[in-house]
Inverse folding.
């Protein structure tokens, strides 16, 4: 990509000339992308294409990896998130993340959700914290299933429930951006449908970015899709177009099951 | 299909659709050509054969539907593949209709031959049929080669068919005005002409589908229309 894309209106996240190196390995090459707010953007591409690496740049998760170097500029609401004055822990409260495998803390359901608000000092009283926990579980469409056993361990829930618990945990800090790295790959079809329904709900409030290996999932839940291949964004645009009539040969071959 | 799918059975399934469609195209072409021959030569046996062949197209259309639905369910096709499958369903419908129209011409052979027809009329009908058949043949080629250019030129040529149909329509009206005893045969011939004109329209539909399958875009909607029969009125010979 030599030409910079035009800024999308109401872009929440702007990435410019982003490079990521793992030691000698140039994993992300010159990525330029604008991610609109209150919408779902899907990152697709074959394994090792860099989509998860790029996703993790957005809340500085790569900072923790030894030998990983990020160059270029990533802005959220116009602010450079790699600025020295930015506290990565604060950033991660604003940019939440849900992982591939549900990873609840070995604590009660209540404490899983309450953890973020507590460490960030977002609530002052127990009543306020109770309120945040209940609201987050409601938003994650889990409240009705767990309201009578909030003290039970989170790890005792089913896979789909655990994933929704992790989503509740991620939204408990009132993030503005929600990163999801293959959030349904360990779930059965029913739990997957519940999480997808949830993603559609969350879109009204958050900027959601989802990495998925399921083309159908990307087509179903997202409004925009970016196709990654060998560390570059080969094509990015409205999801409807990407899955019916993509411009790039590599996108076409990938989504139709011809390589990858 | 330039690059093979990782799952080769998927390619086999798509190829099956294309093969079955070209078989349908062949049968449809044959039926139309034979029905016009039967009409021209008053060949009842040939007409009867055309009528019985229609069943083959009905069966093929249903098979294509069933397989297409199965492929969609099994493979969740995307982009070009999805367009191919949806396109196949649409083309199968058009070809099945072409068969119906050919069959309808064949059914009218007996009624038409209750009287001797003016050579000129039959010639006109033959010419119309030739044009429609050329369109059908070329549109099947366009599908086989996924050529949007060929598809575009086919749609543009439909104009010619419409113009000849309009002039046939006028002629038939004139014959009916001249002698009311011509009315039965001429009315049947009029339906035959209309059927052939409709076959041309189905070729145009297929051309539009081919264009969409190949490019992912719809052809522009402004196409030439020269079927002017809606405005033709009968004037008595003396006027």
């Amino acid at each position: 990509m030599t030409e910079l894309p035009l800024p999308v209106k109401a872009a929440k996240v702007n990435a410019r000339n982003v490079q990521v190196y793992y030691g000698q390995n140039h994993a992300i090459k010159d990525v330029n992308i604008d991610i609109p707010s209150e919408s779902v953007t899907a990152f697709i591409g074959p394994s090792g294409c860099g989509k998860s690496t790029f996703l993790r740049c957005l809340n500085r998760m790569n900072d923790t990896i030894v030998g990983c170097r990020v160059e270029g500029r990533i802005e959220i609401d116009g602010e450079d998130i790699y600025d020295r004055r930015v506290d990565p822990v604060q950033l991660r409260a604003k940019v939440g993340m849900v992982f591939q495998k549900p990873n609840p803390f070995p604590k009660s359901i209540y404490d899983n959700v309450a953890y973020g608000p507590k460490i960030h000092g977002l609530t002052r009283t127990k009543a306020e914290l109770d309120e945040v926990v209940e609201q987050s579980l409601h938003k994650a469409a889990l409240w009705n299933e767990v309201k009578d056993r909030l003290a039970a361990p989170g790890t005792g829930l089913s896979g789909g429930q655990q994933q929704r618990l992790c989503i509740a945990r991620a939204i408990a800090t009132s993030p503005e951006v929600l990163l999801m790295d293959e959030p349904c790959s360990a779930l059965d079809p029913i739990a997957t449908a519940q999480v997808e329904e949830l993603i559609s709900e969350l879109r009204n409030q958050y900027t959601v970015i989802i990495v998925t290996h399921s083309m159908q999932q990307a087509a179903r839940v997202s409004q925009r899709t970016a196709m990654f291949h060998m560390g570059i964004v080969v094509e990015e645009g409205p999801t409807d177009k990407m899955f019916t009539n993509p411009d790039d040969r590599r996108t076409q071959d990938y989504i139709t099951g011809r390589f990858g | 299909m330039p690059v093979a799918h990782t799952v080769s059975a998927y390619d086999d399934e798509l190829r099956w659709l294309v093969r079955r469609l070209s078989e349908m195209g062949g049968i449809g072409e044959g039926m139309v050509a034979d029905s016009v021959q039967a009409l021209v030569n008053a060949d009842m046996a040939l007409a009867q054969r055309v009528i019985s062949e229609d069943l083959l197209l009905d069966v093929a259309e249903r098979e294509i539907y069933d397989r297409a639905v199965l492929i969609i369910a099994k493979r969740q096709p995307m982009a070009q593949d999805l367009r191919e499958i949806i396109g196949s369903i649409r083309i199968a419908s058009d070809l099945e209709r072409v068969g119906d129209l050919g069959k309808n011409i064949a059914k009218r052979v007996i009624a038409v031959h209750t009287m001797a027809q003016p050579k000129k009329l039959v010639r006109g009908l033959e010419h119309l049929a030739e044009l429609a058949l050329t369109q059908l043949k070329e549109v099947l080629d366009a599908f086989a080669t996924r050529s949007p250019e060929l598809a575009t030129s086919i749609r543009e040529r439909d104009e010619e068919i419409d113009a000849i149909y309009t002039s046939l329509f006028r002629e038939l009206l004139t014959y009916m005005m001249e002698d009311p005893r011509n009315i039965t045969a001429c009315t049947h011939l009029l339906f035959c002409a209309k059927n052939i004109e409709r076959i041309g329209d189905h070729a145009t539909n297929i051309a539009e589908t081919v264009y969409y399958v190949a490019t992912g875009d719809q052809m522009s909607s402004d196409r030439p229309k020269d079927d002017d029969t809606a405005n033709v009125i009968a004037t008595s010979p003396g006027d």
Residues 13-255 of chain A form a domain with the Rossmann fold fold (CATH 3.40.50.300). The CA atoms of residues 117 and 203 of chain A lie 21 Å apart. Chain A has a mean pLDDT of 92.
